């Protein structure tokens, strides 16, 4: 019993010593004329506030660093600006860093107020956004006459899975950790900044370990992903996809009549093989593992991708490879999609990729999370799969290049085949 009491007393002594060191640090900072107290900032939260205290501590701690270290604040703004849809105006002006900014719809965690422009920050650790939370911020910012040059909305979270409601920029605290670590290594070895990133690491908000916090908390929910995706894809296979075959000339002139739509679960893909001859092939579905296709996700925060893959069987149709890929029709198709693929990300894996893949030359992709956004039921998601599949195929066929190419090459291929 005496030993247990001694351990407790030692723990208390260590805590007191840590507090004395921190108080000495902040006393020295006050002597140097630092503008505000971090302790005061942390103390202002009432005990009754039903929030995870760590969110408040991190918000106030980060804002305090930015408020009191001008070089860090300027470098942080320069870090954010190229990641936003538009560069930040007034970058020659240092903003006021405010926390718990109150407005009629609630409170904003942090605001960088440039006067005529603002960066609005919402900070989450592990909790989700409330319904319509970012829309409330947008409505307030648009109505704020002071911010005549606009605003940008930045979401910082513990997990990438919390990146919802379409902010202008979504980051994780791991991104902030990496930014601050690089800043320490290249600009100034500041003890308080180092203490802050150490706290992020202790709270599992630093760089991902081999067994990351995100992978731990996502493990059980992820177990249902593949079987559910399989069920959705199989149900989507029952839809009528014959219109695709008819559009690109797979009728009497096709070198090999295409089989009905095939479901494929291999090579890291859960897809429907809509056009089975691969002259060309069209696959619709999900890329779970891009190593076989030699592709990387469109957005690492929102993996996996829903995709259309234009395929070509290099071995079976070797004698037509040059005619297909060097044709005016194919080059026009490729140029059109590269110039304007709408909401889909265009990837050329034959000519423009570091790791070429002539079997799957063109991809049109978007994150699966975006495809299923707003869906609730199984039937909703099947309908969305079919609708998005149709949309991206229509985009591929929109100007008739592929139809013209197949109508020209299929008769030649058929005539060149030896009779059985």
Write the layout of secondary structure elements.
Layout: H1 2-31, H2 38-43, H3 53-68, H4 70-80, E1 96-103, E2 106-113, E3 118-123, H5 133-143, E4 151-157, E5 169-172, H6 173-186, H7 191-202, H8 213-222, H9 225-236, H10 242-247, E6 262-266, E7 269-275, E8 281-287, E9 305-311, H11 321-325, H12 328-339, E10 345-348, E11 362-367, H13 368-371, H14 378-397, H15 401-416
Parallel strand pairs: 3-4, 4-5
Antiparallel strand pairs: 1-2, 2-3, 6-7, 7-8, 8-9, 9-11, 10-11
Give a written overview of the molecule.
There is one protein chain. With 420 residues, the chain is an alpha+beta fold. The chain has 2 domains: 35-216, no CATH class; 224-416, no CATH class. Helix content is 44%, strand content 16%. The chain contains 15 helices and 11 strands. It has helices at 2-31, 38-43, 53-68, 70-80, 133-143, 173-186, 191-202, 213-222, 225-236, 242-247, 321-325, 328-339, 368-371, 378-397, 401-416; strands at 96-103, 106-113, 118-123, 151-157, 169-172, 262-266, 269-275, 281-287, 305-311, 345-348, 362-367. A 6-stranded antiparallel beta sheet has the order 6-7-8-9-11-10. Strand 2 (106-113) and strand 3 (118-123) form a beta hairpin. Helix 3 crosses helix 4, helix 6 (173-186) runs antiparallel to helix 7 (191-202) and helix 12 packs antiparallel against helix 15 (401-416). It starts with a helix and ends with a helix. This is PD-(D/E)XK nuclease family protein.
